[in-house]
Amino acid sequence: MSLFRKKENGERKLPVHIAIIMDGNGRWAKKRTLPRTAGHVAGSENFKTIARYCNKIGIKYLTVYAFSTENWKRPQGEVDAIMNLLRDYLKDSVNFKSENIKLQFIGNLAALPEDIIALMENAENESKDATGLVVNMAVNYGGRDEIVAAVKEIVSSGETEITEELISEKLYTKGVPDPDLIIRPSGEYRLSNFLIWQCAYSEFWFSNVLWPDFKPKHLEEAIDAFNLRDRRMGGLSK
Ligand code: IPE
Ligand code: IPE
Ligand code: MG
User: What is the maximum span of the chain, computed from C-alpha positions, in angstroms?
Assistant: First the structure.
């Protein structure tokens, strides 16, 4: 059976929300005997390519895992290099206005360097009226940290009627539908603390390709695989 049949018939369903764990930059660099930071440079370039592609084909939300609450454990030089790449991207992003991509940041942002917070606010402001793809970039993001922050907010508000909707509204991802499809390249089969509340009914797609090598054609493969899934959500097939 051809994976592409649905696409040829024009019946393909696009996931509304795709989330990607952008992993494998270090191994990509190592394979080329380059420093790990070169892998992060290539990974960050690739993020732009994939985001543009998602916008082009009509994906509504793309959430990317850029830096986790656990990634601070890495050598200071690597952390600094990643933060500098983020700075470069943020400074550049205001020039992408014509692309109609809306940028939002999720995570414990208050703990980031002040200049980065200001650049993020600026990028969000500059792109707030865009009507195309919404990119949620997860920086200093951890799913457990996100849930703890939500619980603290609920407790301090005095609210006692605790519902799933209330918790969802207090997460960094408030207002964004849960991801339909979560993609992890680089041959790892874990979430590493990414969207652990939101992924309750997400479909997962794993690939051995390292993130800097992950091309639009791999995204297409993931979307085709998604089309063959039967999402019963606990009910019965339609
Ligand atoms: C993902 O690539 C980028 C971040 C976690 C910031 P890695 O740096 O984890 O690459 P590998 O997993 O070591 O190959
Ligand atoms: C997950 O990758 C975080 C990001 C891609 C930003 P890691 O490389 O940090 O995950 P582990 O350590 O392999 O689980
Ligand atoms: Mg990794």
Answer: 56
Q: CA-CA distance, 59 to 54, in Å (whole number)?
A: 5
Q: Is 22 in the pocket of ligand 1 (CB under 6 A)?
A: yes
pLDDT band at 10 (very low <50, low <70, confident <90, very high): low
144 and 196 in contact (C-beta within 8 Å)? yes
Of all protein residues, the one whose alpha carbon is nearest to atom 9 of ligand 2 is 71
Ligand 2 pocket test target in 20, 50, 71 with most atoms within 8 Å of CB: 71
Known catalytic membership, residue 140: no
Range of the domain at 23: 17-142+177-227
State residue 1's pLDDT score.
37
How far is C-alpha 211 from the chain's CA centre?
Answer: 13
The total domain count for the chain is 1
pTM of the model: 0.96
Q: Is residue 149 part of a domain?
A: no
Sign, CA dihedral 52-53-59-65, equals negative
